[in-house]
Amino acid sequence: MKLSDIGELSLLKTIRKRFAVKSKDVIAGIGDDTAVIKPPRKNLLATTDMMVEGIHFDLRLTTPYQLGFKLVSINVSDIYAMAGKPRYLLLDIAMDKNTDQSFVKRFFDGIHDAMKLYGVSLIGGDISSSRKDMVIAAALIGDVKKHIKRSGAKPGDRIYVTGNLGDSACGLNVLKKIKKTVPIENTPSLTLPPRGGEMGGGDNSQLLIIKSQLSKLGLSWNTVMPLLRRHLMPEARNPKGFAKYATSMIDLSDGLFIDLTRLCDESKTGAKIFMGRIPVSGRMRTASSLIGLDAMKLACSGGEDYELLFTAPPYPPLRGGAGGVKITCIGEITKKNRIVVDAAGRESQLKATGYRHFEIQR
Amino acid sequence: MKLSDIGELSLLKTIRKRFAVKSKDVIAGIGDDTAVIKPPRKNLLATTDMMVEGIHFDLRLTTPYQLGFKLVSINVSDIYAMAGKPRYLLLDIAMDKNTDQSFVKRFFDGIHDAMKLYGVSLIGGDISSSRKDMVIAAALIGDVKKHIKRSGAKPGDRIYVTGNLGDSACGLNVLKKIKKTVPIENTPSLTLPPRGGEMGGGDNSQLLIIKSQLSKLGLSWNTVMPLLRRHLMPEARNPKGFAKYATSMIDLSDGLFIDLTRLCDESKTGAKIFMGRIPVSGRMRTASSLIGLDAMKLACSGGEDYELLFTAPPYPPLRGGAGGVKITCIGEITKKNRIVVDAAGRESQLKATGYRHFEIQR
Question: I need a labelling partner for A149 at 20 to 30 A (CA). Which of A51, B32, B329, B355 fits?
Fold first, then answer.
């Protein structure tokens, strides 16, 4: 059944029923002109991010479930980057009236699972038709006692990143070789419970084809799966384990170099980054080399990492594994110059390369 | 100059400078991962509305200024419909990288003027490229001491609407005859100061062509201009003059009949509407008849009125002109049946006709 057969009102009714909010802070959720919420005692955070078909995603390479999950994650990542708690979600969805009902259902499954993961409530939204491309946007309201800005870095502060960089960009490049959607919804996650019984026979046969494609490239499923997962269904990093030490913070969406430049611009500082310290997974090294890409380039300017970049004073030195999240010191804040030191100790100027809209892509 | 020549970062810089927030309640505006706002003591309101090219607007018929203005207005209308005060705006914009810089500037001019009109601050957003169609969305946060829901109507309550209905739908139909954009930015508004000196020679010659087109249809500029204005640059109705009496309220976006049905559904009531009482402007009657459309159909299900529909107890009876806004009693809330009474006193069933996404349009 297509959206044109279901109609807007019936779709809204289903969504309203499914996402009924139980929180006592939500006085009115979906179903009125606006949502009504009790004001938190803490400061409010508000952010929005949109995803456009053909620009941010390709429906030949991503499932609707993955798309919904990612939309929530990238907005949560912004709230986490301020050391806040994500709370209330507003959704905007524009899609072709010929979209199949099952596509819409799986999209909302992904939204729903991400909401549960982050403890977020859906309080409103807008659903529209579109002529062709699907466009989705979310606005997310959070709260925070003490927020961490991009502008607080001081010379001498150490620069840290969470997780590994470049996994997502490498995953995207592998996906472009596979040229089809990959059913990773059921693969192991750090934080999500396993979703048993949803990957039927159809998906398994698809998986066999994908595994055979990968083996022709010299790649194994076990190598590639976490990279694909990081691209298709990123989980936002909660900084609660280290936020109290952080002097500045930003989430890595457009690439380490471009986002570090932004943090330095706001803090009016320089930075010195050691390439040899940038955390890169063995899987990413293997996969990138087999498909002929430079692992360090992916790590520094691949984009869509959704890891956190933050600074903290040199003492106490922070250790990896803060709050269950791996952190790595990759350099330090300087007064003015922005420098990259390669493995051989040679210094060069840091260039703010990464993804930018409206520009011709390299 | 095109967006592809300017680039995302330079555009963001311009926007950030132009929309720097002065409010002491905004701790951090545009330029960090999220905005940071002091929590209001009142309840929070949150809403979002999106506008999709080819669905909500046609760039052959609307100027970028009008589009920006309308995007803010339709979101403010939702906050007003809860009797709230609009405060903080988040913007999502996806547009073709070949879009001209002047288009973007005029779009933000419209956003800016509407923001000033309603006293709203821009606190964040997301700008992206799109393959073809332009998609814009806004999320708006407001606050309110005592909100008015759709669900508070009681049998015996009188039903009121603000302004005149159908002007916007009639304006759209006239616009489809004119088949070009109409420079109405400088025409008189109830609330906006005149914008002198912006309508140059080019616009004036365009206006002459439009006036000649209109006269062939038997229409005058003075008849048509307010209708076009109501469609292209609606001003949201502030209910402050009557909100204390209202038991329920909704804004009219999809048409009187469909939105009244929503209010009745939420309130679990019926309604009796007198067609003869529905406020229709003389201009709309003239224009609709000259282009062969039924004025009452436009008024009841044309959509995009952005007027308020509300209910209030019979005593005290409310008079027109509450807080500078014209109000008209069009019927009353009943227990169950939803009935329309025509001018001759004949009763018929109220049908929830109006705009619905994903459905084949009549």
Answer: A51
Inter-residue contact A7 to B358 (CB < 8 Å): yes
CATH number, domain containing residue A115: 3.30.1330.10
Amino acid at B126: D
User: Per the domain annotation, does A195 fall within a domain?
Assistant: no
The single-letter DSSP state of residue A244 is G
Residues 175-234 of A with CB under 8 A from B: none
CA atoms of A106 and A63, how far apart (whole Å): 8
Shortest distance between the Cα of A61 and any Cα of chain B, in A, equals 17
What is the longest distance spanned by two Cα atoms in chain A? 64
Q: Which of residues 53-72 of A touch B (CB under 8 A)?
A: 53-56
DSSP-derived 3-state class of residue B136: strand
**What one-letter code names the amino acid at A81?**
A
The two structure tokens encoding residue B320: 């027109």
Q: What is the mean pLDDT of residues B242-249?
A: 96
Tokens standing for residue B108? 């933000």
* Phi, psi (deg, nearest 5) at residue A140: -130, 130
CATH code at position B297: 3.90.650.10
Instruction: Indicate whether A167 pLDDT > 60.
Output: yes
Dist CA A287 CA A171 (whole Å): 9
ipTM value > 0.90: yes
**Nearest partner of B45 among B80, B71, B72, judged by Cα:** B80
Q: Is there a cis peptide before residue B316, judged by omega within 30 degrees of 0?
A: yes
What is the DSSP track for B221-281?
Answer: HHHHHHHHHHHHS--PPPGGGTGGG-SEEEE-SS-HHHHHHHHHHHHT-EEEEEGGGS---
A190, part of any domain: no
> Which residues have a Cβ under 8 Å from the Cβ of B75 and sit 6 or more positions away?
B47, B48, B49, B86, B89, B138, B139, B140
